[in-house]
């Protein structure tokens, strides 16, 4: 049986609207399919800086049409759970690009054809929301966390400007404790005599490419020559094209200030608690994306094969766990608490797969993450 689909657009949803939708998604089906959308909704309600988007987060829900009493206006609150097919968030990034996420909601009775049609309608609606001052050739950067057939449909049917790597989701229902490390931990490398110290990521660890100054809030920080040399490393080691603004966002704004770590290597004989952090070389780091997934895990070449990646994941998983367990049970109930931690690993990245599996994370079958540039101007409009 085919169903007529319609689009409900909620511009700049209130905190209450976001949390209500997150709660409904959490209890409606397998969490891995919607955990990114849930994470972004919950994080946006707990952060003073809701997102990196100028137009904030907009919600889009594609749903099955249902008879309504005359004069009744459809809202998120009045939309039945069983009628929701696809949920997404989108906005305009400061670089004047449209960005967003789409999460298929795998409820019983959904067919691939129905969800594919929902994707088409969602993209057409997003295209209609594109600000008139933007270049019509501007791409829509879509983070498609969907069952594999949906990703394949998008790649096959939509006009792509580019198609990035495929990522697999890894999730865990408990924070790892293999190494017993946490914020403030330190240990001495038996071979080199270096002392490793677990610290926070600081703004001086991030490269500001265009100048020797960086802006944090309203305070302008002038970097020393040593700091400029050192802070180049985060962007130099990244595997995804993050810019300074995004790295600053996921390391220097709440709640990310509590959901990141930097392991620094101090020279032999230097005591980290009494030394300046500038004496320690950044060795490995990790943070948390806007959707509460593990982000930007990297290890410098000189410090590899010392289990630093696994230690980073262990350190950041605990505050992530605390954040989730603090907010999710009250919102969704104990029985619907989603995985404590999750992250996306590039397909074929053997080292990262071993790290995640070694930390107790398991691959979530059937869910893939794709980073796609869709040419908005070429998306067919819906009459």
From TrEMBL:
It comes from the Eukaryota. This is N-acetyltransferase domain-containing protein. It comes from Polyrhizophydium stewartii. The lineage of its organism: Eukaryota, Fungi, Fungi incertae sedis, Chytridiomycota, Chytridiomycota incertae sedis.
């Amino acid at each position: 049986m085919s169903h007529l689909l319609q689009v409900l657009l909620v511009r700049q949803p209130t905190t209450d609207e976001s949390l209500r939708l997150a709660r409904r998604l959490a209890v409606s089906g397998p969490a891995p399919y919607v955990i990114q959308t849930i994470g972004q909704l919950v994080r946006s309600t707990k952060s003073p800086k809701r997102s990196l988007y100028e137009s904030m987060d907009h919600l889009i829900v594609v749903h099955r049409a249902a008879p309504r009493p005359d004069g009744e206006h459809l809202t998120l609150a009045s939309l039945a759970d069983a009628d929701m097919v696809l949920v997404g968030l989108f906005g305009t990034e400061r670089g004047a690009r449209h960005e967003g996420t789409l999460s298929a909601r795998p409820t019983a009775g959904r067919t691939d054809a129905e969800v594919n049609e929902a994707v088409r309608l969602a993209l057409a609606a997003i295209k209609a929301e594109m600000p008139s001052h933007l270049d019509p050739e501007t791409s829509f950067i879509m983070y498609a966390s969907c069952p594999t057939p949906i990703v394949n449909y998008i790649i096959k049917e939509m006009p792509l400007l580019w198609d990035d790597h495929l990522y697999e989701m890894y999730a865990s229902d408990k924070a790892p404790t293999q190494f017993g490390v946490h914020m403030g931990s330190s240990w001495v490398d038996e071979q080199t005599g270096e002392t490793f110290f677990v610290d926070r990521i600081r703004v001086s660890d991030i490269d500001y490419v265009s100048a020797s100054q960086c802006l944090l809030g309203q305070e302008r920080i002038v970097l020393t020559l040593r700091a400029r040399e050192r802070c180049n490393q985060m962007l130099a080691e990244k595997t995804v094209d993050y810019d300074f603004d995004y790295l600053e966002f996921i390391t220097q704004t709440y709640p990310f200030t509590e959901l990141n770590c930097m392991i620094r290597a101090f020279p032999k004989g230097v005591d980290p608690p009494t030394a300046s952090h500038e004496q320690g070389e950044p060795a490995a780091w990790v943070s948390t994306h806007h959707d509460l997934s593990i982000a930007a895990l990297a290890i410098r070449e000189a410090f590899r094969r010392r289990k630093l990646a696994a230690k980073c994941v262990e350190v950041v998983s605990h505050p992530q766990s605390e954040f989730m367990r603090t907010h999710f049970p009250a919102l969704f109930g104990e029985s619907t608490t989603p995985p404590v931690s999750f992250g996306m690993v590039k397909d074929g990245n053997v080292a990262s797969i071993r790290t995640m599996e070694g930390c107790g994370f398991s691959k979530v079958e059937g869910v893939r993450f794709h980073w796609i540039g869709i040419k908005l101007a070429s998306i067919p409009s819906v009459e």
